[in-house]
Design brief:
By secondary structure, this protein is of the alpha+beta class. It has one domain. 19% of the residues lie in helices and 38% in strands. It has an eight-stranded antiparallel beta barrel.
């Protein structure tokens, strides 16, 4: 149960500023292969995206706290063609997923994954081809972490 909660928290705090618009494009045109690889949080890009958020308040959200920076240093995400693997402090939790929709225009992928006995939908969005946002599908939550690709999975 605790492992599922940590992943739910990860999904909740890694919400992008904008969501994905569904399209009729097929996964063959744009799909999970664009997201496969290892990802780490990127403090600079996270702050940049935070400042571009409609909810940004100058002076209030101009830096990342030491707590957030420390949390970022302990996290890693690996996406394979079948799983999203959350790594934190040497521990890992793998979520098998299935692609529900792909949108090449907004560079988004909506996937479903089973967390315990609950089915959840997540949206993955590429930013500039080398950064990633991950959120619970349908969420309008503010952005916290932006992930930077560190390697392609083999």
């Amino acid at each position: 149960m605790g492992r599922c909660i940590s992943l739910i928290v990860l999904v909740a705090i890694c919400a992008p500023i904008t969501g994905c618009r569904e399209s009729g494009e097929s996964e063959a045109t744009f799909g999970k292969e664009s997201f496969v690889g290892r990802w780490i949080p990127d403090a600079e890009k996270t702050l940049e995206e935070k400042k571009n958020s409609p909810s940004y308040e100058p002076g209030k959200d101009d830096t990342l706290s030491d707590t957030v920076k420390n949390a970022m240093e302990q996290l890693e995400l690996e996406i394979t063609d079948t799983q999203i693997i959350y790594l934190r402090g040497g521990r890992q939790q793998a979520l098998p997923y299935a692609v529900q929709s792909a949108n090449p225009t907004s560079q988004c992928l909506t996937v479903s994954a089973k967390m315990g006995d609950k089915e959840v939908e997540m949206t993955l969005r590429l930013i500039d081809g080398e950064y990633l946002n991950l959120k619970s599908a349908g969420s309008d939550s503010g952005n916290l972490f932006v992930w930077r690709r560190v390697s392609e999975s083999q």
